[in-house]
RNA sequence: GGAGAGUUGGCCGAGCGGCUUAAGGCGCACGCUUGGAAAGCGUGUAUACUCCAAAAGGGUAUCAAGGGUUCGAAUCCCUUACUCUCCGCCA
């Protein structure tokens, strides 16, 4: 959530940011509505506080009167306080109402894009930040898509997954399952080597945590909701991991905080269909190793670039053709200020598949999380939060199978052989 | 799932309707002291919102969370969450 302070002090920056998000003129009027409501809120608070102060001091006097035996005076004063209380009740209602309205508007507003975010309305307008330098591999017409390879080598059973649960819950078996486990270990080992603390976290979170990272209310429909216990299946490890720092005030020397976790991720993704969701392209449960950092505002941009290079290193070691996109204002996720997507070339499908998204949320999440640090003057300031997939497993499996297929089997890249224990699938 | 006991500031811990602007201790910071340190002494030490042009200084709220009783609630009542102990079940 944006800080209300910005609306008063940097209104132009707010408007500029929202325009980059393609806000219409009517939508932009929200900004003035918010400023107006907040001014109302302030005056209501001042009035309310004054009344409460009166009530407190008079109540104290009543106590003293009783103690000195002046019951008659005390009882008279009770009447006075009673009338103050009635006013307080009235004002409190108005104040709560203003707060509620303000909150309703504030949660509708996405993060302001970083200045480097290109203008644009859809994924067509994303900027290719770093293209695949070499020629894209051409495997010829015999190249099989991953779902056929998975079937041919007995790696993934989509029918069994559908039988046990439903569509979008593939069952990995034999070397398919081992390959996935190897990738998890490989990604975690690389993250550990880069200084990220490994964590095993709950895969189910409460509403406070979901709200803290912005999954609620913005993505309510995307999460599996366990109503009986009022809990949510995590859509990404970002939610439990970032919430480690909810309601925490750190010292500036604690930066950077680096955490990593492997988790399954659950997404309802209602309304998808067609070839784009075939095989592993889009599933309801997938695996991911996530990297998260909490950083000083002045250093967060450099940190984002460092995370970018980390993800890039993984793809290079897996020998997969990739490109990096800088998302435009229209494609940026709600909470993000700046996002780079990694796409890997799916050699048989002949299309790019998104395998990672690396984002700087600046203070948008930390404001909700109340994740703060103390600056040189001892004042509390909001920290910056960042995260990235490093990496999403299922699409990597798809691309590994397709890109490294040969006539007599699938060749495992050397970096991964240390983790699989075998060199090929045949 | 059943029964009981708890949850107070960074931490420990007192308080069980007004004498609390939350005692006392520990920790931390600064100062005095010292050749330097320790000890000792002194001062300070939460968060959010808000008033004030700003600083200084006020105000309000917060004793797990939310509601209630009362002129007044950390303290009494209700609901919820969490922690611990015992029983049951269990990888």
Q: How would you describe this protein?
A:
By secondary structure, the protein is an alpha+beta fold. The protein has an 8-stranded mixed β-sheet. It has a 3-stranded antiparallel β-sheet with strand order 5-7-6. It folds into 2 domains: 103 residues, Helix Hairpins, CATH 1.10.287.40; 303 residues, Bira Bifunctional Protein, Domain 2 (BirA Bifunctional Protein, domain 2, 2-Layer Sandwich). The chain is built from 13 helices and 19 strands. Strand 6 and strand 7 form a beta hairpin. Helices cover 42% and strands 22% of the residues. It binds one RNA strand of 91 nucleotides through helix 3 and helix 4.
Structural class computed from helices and strand pairing:
alpha+beta
The share of residues in helices is 40-55%
What is the makeup of the main sheet? 8 strands, mixed
Mean pLDDT, to the nearest integer, reads: 92
The CATH homologous superfamily of the largest domain is called Bira Bifunctional Protein, Domain 2
State the strand order across the main sheet: 1-11-12-13-16-10-9-4
Looking at how many chains there are and whether they match, the oligomeric state comes to single chain
Computed over alpha carbons, the radius of gyration is 27 Å
Strand content: 15-25%
């Amino acid at each position: 959530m944006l800080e209300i302070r910005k609306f008063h002090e940097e209104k132009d920056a707010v408007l500029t940011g929202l325009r980059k998000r393609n806000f219409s003129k009517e939508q932009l009027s929200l900004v003035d509505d918010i400023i107006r409501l907040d001014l109302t809120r302030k005056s209501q608070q001042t009035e309310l506080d004054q009344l409460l102060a009166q009530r407190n001091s008079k109540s104290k006097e009543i106590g003293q009167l009783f103690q000195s035996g002046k019951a008659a005076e005390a009882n008279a004063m009770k009447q006075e306080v009673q009338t103050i209380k009635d006013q307080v009740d009235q004002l409190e209602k108005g104040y709560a109402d203003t707060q509620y309205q303000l909150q309703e508007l504030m949660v509708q507003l996405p993060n302001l894009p970083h200045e480097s975010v290109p203008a644009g309305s859809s994924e067509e307008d994303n900027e290719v930040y770093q293209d695949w330098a070499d020629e894209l591999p051409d495997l010829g017409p015999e190249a099989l898509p991953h779902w056929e390879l998975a079937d041919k080598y007995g790696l993934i059973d989509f029918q069994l997954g559908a039988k046990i649960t439903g569509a979008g819950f593939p069952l990995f078996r034999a070397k398919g399952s081992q390959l996935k486990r190897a990738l998890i270990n490989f990604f975690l080992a690389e993250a550990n080597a880069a200084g990220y603390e490994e964590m095993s976290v709950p895969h189910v979170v409460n509403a406070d945590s979901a709200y803290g990272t912005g999954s609620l209310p913005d993505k309510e429909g995307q999460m599996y909701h366990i109503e009986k216990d009022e809990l949510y299946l995590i859509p990404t490890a970002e939610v439990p991991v970032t919430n480690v720092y909810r309601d925490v005030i750190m010292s500036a020397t604690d930066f950077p905080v680096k955490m990593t976790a492997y988790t399954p991720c659950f997404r309802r993704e209602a309304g998808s269909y067609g070839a784009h969701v075939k095989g592993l392209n889009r599933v309801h449960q997938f695996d991911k190793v996530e990297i998260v950092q909490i950083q000083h505002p002045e250093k967060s941009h450099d940190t984002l670039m460092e995370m970018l290079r980390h993800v890039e290193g993984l793809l290079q070691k897996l020998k997969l053709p990739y490109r990096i996109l800088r998302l435009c204002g229209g494609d940026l996720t709600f909470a993000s200020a700046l996002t780079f997507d990694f796409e890997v070339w799916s050699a048989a499908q002949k299309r790019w598949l998104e395998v990672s998204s690396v984002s700087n949320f600046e203070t948008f999440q930390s404001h909700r999380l109340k994740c703060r640090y103390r600056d040189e003057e001892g004042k509390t300031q909001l920290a910056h939060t960042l995260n990235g997939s490093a990496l999403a497993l299922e699409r990597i499996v798809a691309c590994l199978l397709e890109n490294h297929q040969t006539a007599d089997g699938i060749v495992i890249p050397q970096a991964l052989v240390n983790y699989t224990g075998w060199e090929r699938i045949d």
